[in-house]
Amino acid sequence: MRTVNPTVGLVHIISSLNGSMTAMTVFFPLDTARLRLQVDEKRKSKTTHMVLLEIIKEEGLLAPYRGWFPVISSLCCSNFVYFYTFNSLKAIWVKGQRSTTGKDLVIGFVAGVVNVLLTTPLWVVNTRLKLQGAKFRNEDIVPTNYKGIIDAFRQIIRDEGILALWNGTFPSLLLVFNPALQFMFYEGLKRQLLKKRTKLSSLDVFIIGAIAKAIATTVTYPMQTVQSILRFGRHSLNPENRTLGSLRNVLYHLHQRVRRFGIMGLYKGLEAKLLQTVLTAALMLLVYEKLTAATFTVMGVKNARKH
């Protein structure tokens, strides 16, 4: 049996964190536009560029980057948990053999569940910080006044109870299929290409990363909208805004969205989400692959990325 270098997992984690931070920073304004469209139901502008222009005009040039640090912090923690769990489970299960699409899906699902349970409080806080100071069109939204990440945790626990930090957990658990589907398609497409060539080009990695994320995002987007609303949790006239977000709560929000805006209301902000997540995922995976390969080359570790 092959001996696994104990530093291999750490290289994967560091590479993924660097890739995620770079990609999220570059495309952060797109995520800002997406979140505004999901939460602020009465905003009339529907296109990404118009929403961003409104934000800059009303709130300042740097407003599209509001909440960058909390999001980056959450992203680092989230990706650390996800990639560490994913690669650890894969090393245990595969044990030097060739992986399969089915195994990648199962491992991705388990890693996603662990990630949700551990990091949801961070995402609840960063969602609220990102929207703090926004010029909402919806007068039912109750504004927040947090001084930072720690103060946000303190106020939420004091005013809403500690379980409020896990608002949106149920839809988040359902959404673990998103990264699972993404990596299933990514790994599957990569294996198919590697059958025809010995090495993938940067363009190959970018394209298959974009395709994989686009499929996963489109399938799960309505649930992501509900997740954002529950995490924000500042709609004063929302009688169904219960902690954790039960199945009944999720169905309530889906029904309300369709009743008010039609079936397309479930996909409000999808343009911004696709642009942001597809480009972010593709760039993240590109940086991840390149950093991993370069590090292993320097370390003299061979075939560390073969399955």
From TrEMBL:
Q: Name one GO cellular component term.
A: peroxisomal membrane
Classification via Pfam families: Mito_carr
Give the principal location in a single coarse category: membrane
Taxonomically, what lineage is the organism?
A: Eukaryota, Metazoa, Chordata, Craniata, Vertebrata
Q: Where in the cell is it found?
A: Peroxisome membrane
Q: What name does this protein carry?
A: Solute carrier family 25 member 17
The GO molecular function terms of this record are:
ADP transmembrane transporter activity; AMP transmembrane transporter activity; ATP transmembrane transporter activity; coenzyme A transmembrane transporter activity; FAD transmembrane transporter activity; FMN transmembrane transporter activity; NAD transmembrane transporter activity
Solcar repeat segments run: 7-92, 99-192, 200-294
- Name of the gene this protein is made from: SLC25A17
User: Quick check: keyword Membrane in the entry?
Assistant: yes
- Asked if the keyword Methyltransferase belongs to this entry, the reply reads no
InterPro entries found in the cross-reference section: MCP_dom_sf (IPR023395), MCP_transmembrane (IPR018108), Mito/Peroxisomal_Carrier (IPR052217)
Read off the PROSITE patterns from this record: SOLCAR
The family assignment reads:
Belongs to the mitochondrial carrier (TC 2.A.29) family.
**Entry keyword set:** Membrane, Peroxisome, Repeat, Transmembrane, Transmembrane helix, Transport
This protein's species is Loxodonta africana (African elephant)
Q: Where are the transmembrane segments?
A: 7-30, 105-125, 170-189, 201-221
